[in-house]
């Protein structure tokens, strides 16, 4: 049997093969990081032949191996399939994972957003049903918030859910839904009461993406890929026990999920893009023979400092959340700094690449990967609330600046939906 990390609530042990059988050793976060480094090196250090396997199959295989090795769901409660460890262990893993491009991209929405929200708000039955399979990569999740007429103003959404006995009937449309074409389940935000102000009449549901009436249409972006989708919901029946949180309190559920999303941006194992990390750009500078140039060294040094600060902030907020502290608007600080970090990384790459940033050989895999990451980077400043929205939140809720005026305040959604305001 291969060596692996075993966990109990709040601690980690390493099961090591010896000539006398197996033994367990208590691990500190630093030793946990070393174990992660060894495992990642063995699992991803080479270029394994995946044969005819597609990206989804590769991702499923990797996530299952990650879970079985003890490195998935590190801070998730052990009783629901997680490792039950502190944020220090997650931080240790993140630092090692930053050296790799983890092939589990399709699970990021579930791991960083839907899963943590299930931990916070789900019933015992929901946690038992969904969390372990999510962590093992058996089921992919998506988030269904944005709509054609409600992007940054999520509370202005028009998708309706109407009671039908014990069930709900959902009608509407979502857009910019990441991984929906692969997803088995989704966290759906819908309006269940238009007679109250728009933030009060929402409910979050766990949606079966394979249910009758759900249609997913991929949206192709300039890279030729389809990371986003539009989702049509035509009289979709959702069972009553699929409510995540409380009926009519969907805005609280949405804020909980957005809080997790915003804090995940700087984490290499979740929201971060390792193709634009310090380690990746340092290797690129060395391959270009530019690593010794003063301006490049300065850009890389500044990038390293910012990346480290964002990572530590994310780890601190994760630990405070684990201890039950209310993060309030501080998750918006993490979201904004993570988006600005990617912008800084893009500028650093442009500087060191020089004229080669305009054209490159098709077989230059590192350049192709970085170019793909640069095209995707602006989305981080939009998803989960634009940079401008984050600045408003920080200004109003942390700095105490006056709130922006709104003609909708105090009115029901039914009264305001024809105003054209978004």
Mind explaining what this structure looks like?
The protein has 422 residues and is of the alpha+beta class. The protein has three domains: 4-103, Butyryl-Coa Dehydrogenase, subunit A, domain 1; 141-253, Beta Barrel (Butyryl-CoA Dehydrogenase, subunit A, domain 2), CATH 2.40.110; 254-397, Up-down Bundle (Butyryl-CoA Dehydrogenase, subunit A, domain 3), CATH 1.20.140. The chain has helices spanning 29-44, 55-69, 87-97, 108-121, 124-135, 250-264, 278-287, 294-322, 330-353, 365-376, 387-397, 413-416; strands spanning 4-8, 11-18, 21-27, 141-144, 160-164, 167-174, 185-191, 202-208, 214-219, 228-238.
Key traits:
about 425 residues; alpha+beta; Butyryl-Coa Dehydrogenase, subunit A, domain 1; Butyryl-CoA Dehydrogenase, subunit A, domain 2; Butyryl-CoA Dehydrogenase, subunit A, domain 3; 3 domains; four-stranded antiparallel beta sheet; three-stranded antiparallel beta sheet; 12 helices; 10 strands; about 15% strand; globular
CATH fold title of the largest domain: Butyryl-CoA Dehydrogenase, subunit A, domain 3
Largest sheet: 4 strands, antiparallel
Just give the CATH class of the largest domain: Mainly Alpha
Structural class: alpha+beta
Question: Which sequence of strands runs across the widest sheet?
Answer: 5-6-10-9
How many helices in DSSP terms? 12
Q: Which architecture name of the largest domain does CATH use?
A: Up-down Bundle
Radius of gyration: 22 Å
Runs with pLDDT <50, length 5+?
16-23, 48-52
- Secondary structure tally: strands: 10
Strand residue content: 15-25%
- Summed up, the domain count is 3
CATH homologous group name of the largest domain: Butyryl-CoA Dehydrogenase, subunit A, domain 3
Element-level helix/strand string = EEEHHHHHEEEEEEEHHHHHHH
Average pLDDT figure: 85
| Basic shape | globular
* Amino-to-carboxy terminus distance: 58 Å
Helicity range of the residues?
A: 40-55%
